[in-house]
Amino acid sequence: MPLNQLTRGLPRSAPALVAIVASLCLSACVVAPLPGPQVVNPYPQYQGEAEVIAPVAPPQPYSEAITVAPAPGYIWIGGFWGWGGGRYAWRAGHWEAPRAGYHWVPRSWDHGPRGWHQRGGHWAR
Description:
Blueprint: H1 3-6, H2 14-27, E1 38-40, E2 51-54, E3 75-77, E4 80-84, E5 87-91, E6 94-96, E7 103-105, E8 108-112, E9 115-119, E10 122-124
């Protein structure tokens, strides 16, 4: 129904009054984002990467199509769910040159007392 039919018989200022009351009512609605990540670094072995703590569990990992290695011996570093901006986002896997005497330890999510902790992937001896 058009606004002019709803306000027929009301004073001329009624539409403005209705608009003001509606805007005041809607301004009371608050949409709060999920809390941001807490960043701590209790694990120095993760080569300077901070541990991220998320309030909810990560989704199941994607099944990625692994592309052809850019050169012989390269190692595939699988993708992972990263937390940021109040949500998870998939970070695609990639190829890396091997490091002599090291092996790749993938990222992981573990449930802890403050939420879900992401342990950064790193090269280990």
